[in-house]
Amino acid sequence: MPHLSELHGASTHLAVVAIPLYALLLVLRRVGWGGDRSRALEPWALAAAGPGIATSGITGLLVLGQSQTELRGGDLAIGTVHFWLGIALAVVVLALVAMRYRRVAAAAATALAVLALLGVVAQGYFGGRMTYQHGAGVEALGEARQTAIGASRLHVALAQGASPVAAGQAAFADRGLGCAGCHGDLAQGARGPRLAGGRGLGDFRRVHKGGLFPPEVVTDRDFATIDAYLKTLRSGRAPGASRSLRSSSSWR
Hints:
Helix content is about 70%, strand content about 0%. It has about 250 residues and is mainly α. The two termini are about 45 Å apart.
């Protein structure tokens, strides 16, 4: 069964091919190349761009929530830019369709088509960063490198005798598993919900089981350690955690 993120990528490629092709055909016509052949192909390329934009937009909305759980902290800005570029690109393609229907001057249509081409390049860049750098939409991966390093440091700290509260505090921080980037330094809530006071394992797995913290990397024991720290935050501070944390060299 295809994953939603795979359907988004597959549908997006129709627009990725059709829009540059349409822009190229218009440019060829402007410089007097291609003749009747480019004139005959041009409406077909535009006709393919429309459904490509529509299907990529629909599937993009379906995976929007997934990206919001798989991008840490401020990195969500990448997804936001990618999303709004898609909206702008859809508007430009609709304008091109309207120009074609009303037979607006070819120079204006060519300029708009080149703008759409630049939009495809920019949106593809941010989409590529989300997928290949951050792993958004990659099953059981997420931002795997930071997750794997943070989990490894957590295991080492526990093996060296760090208290669960101290180890959990370090794992929660930006330089650990990165939880603080979304939930705030004291789990007070930011882009992600408030976690101060602790959360159940079921809630944690429901949100992150296939994203940032897959169970084969961040184990139930790891979560229990982080939760031990979260339970100290009912008053907004973790008594004694910072002192214990400074004594653990594995987190430096």
